[in-house]
Amino acid sequence: MKLLLIALLPLLFAGVARAALHTEVVEYKDGDKVLEGYLAYDDAAKDKRPGVLIVHEWMGHNPYVRTRAEQLAKLGYVAFALDMYGKGVRAKDAKEAGEMAGVFKNDRKLMRSRATAGFDILRKQPLVDAKRVAAIGYCFGGTTVLEMARAGTDLAGVVSFHGDLATPHPEDAKNIKCKVLALHGADDPFVKPDVVAAFEEEMRKAGVDWQLVQYGGAVHSFTNPGAGKDNSKGAAYNEKADLRSWQAMKDFFDEIFQKGA
User: Using CB atoms within 10 A of its CB, is residue 170 exposed (0-12), middle (13-18) or buried (19+)?
Assistant: First the structure.
């Protein structure tokens, strides 16, 4: 029995090595603005792999977005959770978050520039296949990744989780080179049906390869357990929509990250 255990030890340790997760805080800049992102990947594997950029909600770069980066790393991607607001800058409440996010919503050039700074950091990582990079975002982050697509960023695809689908420049959809997946709460009171319809028309007119999935009974922030469970507040966690949207993202990645896709 002892001999058997000794023989099995290398296999057991090999399994641990294969599951090694490397995480790292990365300081970088957009112009003079100092930012702080979070990198995660499996460092046991040495092959190049797809990269996934993650854009946080309106409260700022927080533990939630880092958890998503780690989840993506465990799926085999190099994940980078960028920072839109600045090193150590977080909103203390919804009012402040609205003001901070509003700066970018009113200045799409700044939004694109700040997101591109994070994209550049991810794309330069040694383990990233620079031709296979996607961006996902939550709420404010969902709006941001759609804006990256409209800017013509060289992405394989973008995924918006309960993001605002509106843009002041719908004509920029002609610049979209990647595939688009929007995951939306069908009962979201903050993104009205007319905004959803305008997004659909924008995508159609530009000839984009796009998908829109709406989850019945889900409101804003349906992927975040920290949003509570009271739909009447307009933002609430919905476990079914969370799991279904994550699976939709994984299926989307399987499609866009195929070699030669």
Answer: middle
Is the pLDDT reported for residue 4 higher than 90?
A: no
- In the predicted structure, residue 5 carries a pLDDT above the cut 60: no
Tokens of 78: 């190099």
Q: Residue 45: pLDDT band by 50, 70, 90 thresholds?
A: confident
Q: What is the DSSP string of the chain?
A: -HHHHHHHHHHHHHHHHHT-EEEEEEEEEETTEEEEEEEEEESS--S-EEEEEEE--TT-S-HHHHHHHHHHHHTT-EEEE--SS-TT---SSHHHHHHHHHHHHT-HHHHHHHHHHHHHHHHTSTTEEEEEEEEEEETHHHHHHHHHHHTT---SEEEEES-----S-GGGGGG--SEEEEEEETT-TTS-HHHHHHHHHHHHHHT--EEEEEETT--BTTT-GGG-S-GGGSB---HHHHHHHHHHHHHHHHHHTSTT-
More confident residue, 50 or 5: 50
Token reading at 196:
């959803």
Strand partners, 214: 184
Q: Which residues contact 247 (CB under 8 A, 6 or more apart)?
A: none
Please tell me the pTM assigned to this model.
0.91
Tell me: the pLDDT tens digits for 122-158?
999 999 999 999 999 999 999 999 999 999 999 999 9
Are the beta carbons of 65 and 25 closer than 8 angstroms?
Answer: no
For 126, other C-beta atoms within 10 Å of its C-beta total 7
Alpha carbon distance, N-terminus to C-terminus of the chain:
50
- Cα separation, 120 vs 138, in Å, equals 20
